[in-house]
Write a structure and sequence with these properties.
Helix content is 50%, strand content 9%. The chain is an alpha+beta fold and 202 residues long. The two termini are 23 Å apart.
């Protein structure tokens, strides 16, 4: 689905990733799956400059070649070929980046997800909340709006807290630091302001 979207918008469309066009995003994903020597610097650190250099090189390739590489899947020797790794590591990655393309376009609206993906996103939020919201200076609770009688789940401890209210999809986009989401923050003004000041995402 992401590849179809990249084909639709072409190489120069904006994304929610600051400073990246769809070409840059495609190059990022190709490097992530096919260049383990460069993928280590994606999250920063001493290899970040090398990752940027490799990614810039990938971005100079024809756009249809990049999309073709993504569509064909990871190289045969890549860890992302393993079903467990693919399911755990790629589902969130590709969901967020697909939305990075969709939501950067005018007039975007939330889309209906299949139940399996929705539950996967919710489970990952619950399991990874402490990491995803580690920079928040307040406690973080989450409450779903897509199911009846949804209980609040604590994602991060803290004396004061904010409650994130929305569907698992919208909560996921918020958790990864995207501003284009339809989740709602509830809490006292000071706690909400402290949460908003945190740099989220991994």
């Amino acid at each position: 689905m992401l590849c179809n979207l990249l084909d639709q918008y072409g190489p120069d469309a904006p994304t929610l990733c600051e400073g990246w066009t769809t070409r840059d995003l495609a190059a990022h994903l190709v490097v992530r799956e096919g260049r383990p020597d460069a993928a280590l610097g994606i999250l920063g650190g001493p290899l970040a400059a090398w990752t940027e250099r490799v990614q810039n090189g990938a971005a100079s390739e024809p756009f249809d070649k990049l999309v073709g590489l993504l569509r064909s899947g990871p190289p045969i020797w890549s860890q992302f070929r393993l079903p467990l790794v693919d399911g755990q590591a790629n589902t969130i990655e590709f969901f967020v980046h697909l939305e990075d393309v969709r939501r950067a376009q005018p007039g975007w609206q939330p889309r209906e997800l299949n139940p399996e993906l929705t539950e996967f996103l919710w489970d990952r939020l619950r399991q990874s909340g402490k990491m995803l919201f580690g920079r928040a200076k307040v406690g973080v609770l989450a409450r779903r709006t897509d199911v009846a009688e949804a209980a609040e789940v604590r994602l991060r401890g803290g004396k004061s807290a904010v409650t994130l209210v929305g569907t698992p999809a919208e909560l996921t986009m918020l958790a990864f630091g995207r501003k284009e989401h339809r989740a709602v923050l509830e809490g006292d003004p000071e706690s909400v302001a402290a949460f908003d000041a945190a740099k989220l995402g991994v």
